[in-house]
Amino acid sequence: MPQHQQRIYFDNAATTFPKPPEVLAAMAHYAQGIGASAGRGAYGEAQESGHVLHTCRERLNALFHGENPNHFIFTLNCTDALNLAIQGMLNPGDHAITTWMDHNSVLRPLNALEAAGVRVTRLPVDRATGLLDPADIKKALTPHTRLVAVAHGSNVTGTLQAVREIGAITRPAGVPLLVDAAQTAGHVPIDVQADQIDLLAFPGHKGLMGPLGTGALYVRPGLEKRLRPLRYGGTGSISEWDVQPDFMPDKFESGSHNAIGIAGLSAGVQWILNKSVNALWEHQRALISAFMEGVDNLENLRYFGPQTVKNRLGVFSVRIDDMDPPTLAARLEHEFGILTRAGLHCAPLAHRTIGTIGANGPVTAAPAPAGGVGTTRFSFGPFLTCMDVQYACDALASIAIAHQADGANRAPQAALL
User: Fold this and answer.
1) Please, which pLDDT band fits residue 248 given cuts at 50, 70 and 90?
2) Beta strand pairing status for 215-219 and 177-180?
3) What pLDDT shows up at residue 128?
4) pLDDT higher than threshold 50 for residue 95
5) With 90 as the cut, is the pLDDT of residue 371 above it?
6) Residue 177 in 3-state DSSP?
7) Could you tell me which residues are beta bridge partners of residue 149?
8) How far apart are CA 258 and CA 266, in angstroms?
9) How deeply is 180 buried, as exposed, middle or buried, from its count of CB atoms within 10 A (0-12, 13-18, 19+)?
10) At 274, is the secondary structure helix, strand, or coil?
11) Who contacts 39 (Cβ-Cβ below 8 Å, separation ≥6)?
């Protein structure tokens, strides 16, 4: 079947596309007019490169209401930031708490540390909504709990957790709260002070509109004394020392930066500040409402997670009865030019929660559902419109109705066998 000429991108949970023109312009300016590595010289271009980094930190600090721009540590991506927080905070004998909605970027480092003597509690969530009861965290705390890690927004169900309520539990208990904002940074208002977030991990290439290969970890002032670096090496500062600097941000930023990527990230963050994250969030909520209304009457199609706009992001995992998710994704692309992601989305416990994973692999569950494992995921970005969402809903309706009719036609033949 020929590929559809129209291409509408619904995979923003993986990386946003397109990027604002300002992002590409900032990267081109860096490549053509700066080029130098920050902290590796006293000449003008090296100083300007350092200014690019500091400006990005200031913009991130403004966006997330941080306490100090130098407490935003640049990382390779959100996974890198999460690993720094998790592996840098925990020691054998410590206890950590996470949830069944978390991504493998949290689950896998915790599983590795569990084998080394860290005890991990994985809290279940409501199967219908994916919501965690914050009271369950309070019950799970022990005198040895040293970290609570929570995915702010699910990349499977779109569930938006009550981070502020969780922070009101962890902060008085003296337990650092690590928030995985992979799906919320840039999409949803986040205030690290009001939400009592101690460690905020986020990618640059998703809601912040920057390029791939960028991300950061915000470390609440004072907590850096407890956080170990994962990498050691040159920082361009106090080169006469042969030990790692103990001040921010140099303690956690060894080696030359991805300065061209950070230039793009900085422009993306400024684009969000100009638009206002509140306005972008309202636009996403309008897209969410449009999708829910558009698929509401399809009997053989369902989406997972909250069934109302409350407590949800613009991330929808859908299934059509008895249809393999990759088949649905392929039909959406080739017949309608709609780009989605099918599969398990690196979140096996989330799929186990909603019943869309089989018994294969380390995580066992019920037998694989009819039509295969996983879901087909739609995820929204700021450049999508309600018309785009309605077009996607019409495409889903066309495929779902045709599939239902095919099933009805096959049923009498099956009965004769």
Assistant:
1) very high
2) unpaired
3) 96
4) yes
5) no
6) strand
7) 178
8) 12
9) buried
10) helix
11) 46, 50, 235, 236, 237
* The two structure tokens encoding residue 325: 């998710």
Contact 154, 177 (CB under 8 A): no
Tokens of residue 43, six digits: 């000449």
| pLDDT for residue 414 is more than 80 | no
Residue whose entry in the numeric block shows the structure tokens 């859908």: 318
Show Cβ contacts of residue 268 under 8 Å, excluding neighbours closer than 6 positions. Answer: 19, 20, 22, 23, 186, 204, 208, 209, 210
Given the structure tokens 């956080």, which residue do they identify?
A: 227
* 113, two tokens: 């540390």
Gyration radius of the chain's alpha carbons: 23
Return the SS3 of 257. Answer: coil
Q: Which residue reads 């209304």 in tokens?
A: 293
Within its chain, how far is the Cα of 230 from the centroid? 22
- In which order are the strands placed within the sheet that holds 375-379? 301-303, 315-320, 375-379, 341-343
For residue 74, give both structure tokens: 């640049």
Contacts from 229-234 at CB under 8 Å and sequence distance 24+? 229/84, 229/88, 229/254, 230/83, 230/84, 230/87, 230/88, 231/255
Helix (H, G, I), strand (E, B) or coil at 203: strand
Structure tokens at 279: 């306005």
**2-22 pLDDT, tens per residue?**
566 789 999 999 999 999 999
- The set of residues, in sequence order, having a beta carbon less than 8 Å from that of 232 and lying 6+ positions away, is 244, 254
DSSP-derived secondary structure for 41-110: -SSHHHHHHHHHHHHHHHHHHHHHT-S-GGGEEEESSHHHHHHHHHHHH--TT-EEEEETT--HHHHHHH
Q: What is the pLDDT averaged over residues 285-311?
A: 96
Alpha carbon distance 28, 102 (integer Å): 36
Contact 192, 213 (CB under 8 A): no
Tell me which residue has tokens 């502020």.
164
Mean pLDDT of all residues in 355-360: 72
DSSP state of 201: E
Helices in 146-276 by DSSP H: which ranges?
A: 163-173, 259-275
